[in-house]
From TrEMBL:
The lineage of its organism: Eukaryota, Viridiplantae, Streptophyta, Embryophyta, Tracheophyta. This is Germin-like protein. It holds the Pfam family Cupin_1. Mn(2+) binds at H107, H109, E114, H155. Keywords: Apoplast, Disulfide bond, Manganese, Metal-binding, Secreted, Signal. Disulfide bonds join C32-C44. It is found in: Secreted, Extracellular space, Apoplast.
Length: 193
């Protein structure tokens, strides 16, 4: 019996330690504005030197980037590189512009859940569950609609319309990561069905 209790306690400790290292750090102070003059990670700027501009970004009203690339989309990130005050806050924002038939191809964010809002146009969006069924959950979104992509699951967005589309995405991590799934991998997975 004592061995079982010990093993259970050890397992719970191991799981809780793993979870702690797999998430953004918690705030230890009100904010930690990045001192961009430093090179090792993101150290904090002296609180006396913090200004309102450290928490400000003004370009999301403009179309971001060129959508004449092979994906037909452009992403304007708003993360700690654009807003130094986002450091340690655990959030990221992105504007996504889609040309007609443009896409944000299958990808995953290993460290963050994404919530997407359509601002203009319509998007066909979805994600694939990781359970044994690998079920596709997809929906057509119109202006004002919101969809959530759970952390770590492969997801996509596609503008099936003949007009441009714009969406705003928020992610639950200051560094959610992004891993694109290439066509060869998609073909290999599809070949198993």
């Amino acid at each position: 019996m004592a061995v079982r209790v010990f093993l259970l306690a050890a397992a719970l400790l191991a799981v809780s330690c793993f979870h702690a290292t797999a998430s953004d750090t918690s705030l230890l102070q009100d904010f930690c504005v990045v001192d961009k003059l430093r090179v090792n990670g993101f150290p904090c700027k002296d609180a006396n030197d913090v200004v309102a501009e450290d928490f400000f970004f003004s370009d999301l009203h403009m179309a971001g980037g060129n959508t004449t690339n092979k994906q037909g989309s452009a992403v304007t990130p708003v993360n700690v590189a654009q807003i130094a005050g986002l450091n340690t806050m655990g959030i990221t924002l992105a504007r996504m512009d889609y040309a007609p038939f443009g896409q944000n191809p299958p990808h995953t964010h290993p460290r963050g859940t994404e919530i997407l809002t359509v601002l203009e146009g319509s998007l066909y969006v979805g994600f694939v569950t990781s359970n044994p069924d690998n079920k596709l959950l997809a929906k057509v979104l119109n202006k004002g609609d919101v969809f959530v992509f759970p952390e770590g699951l492969i997801h996509f967005q596609f503008n099936y319309g003949t007009k441009n589309a714009v969406a705003l995405a928020a992610l639950s991590s200051q560094n959610p990561g992004a891993f694109n799934v290439d066509k060869m991998t998609v073909d290999r997975i599809q070949g198993q069905f």
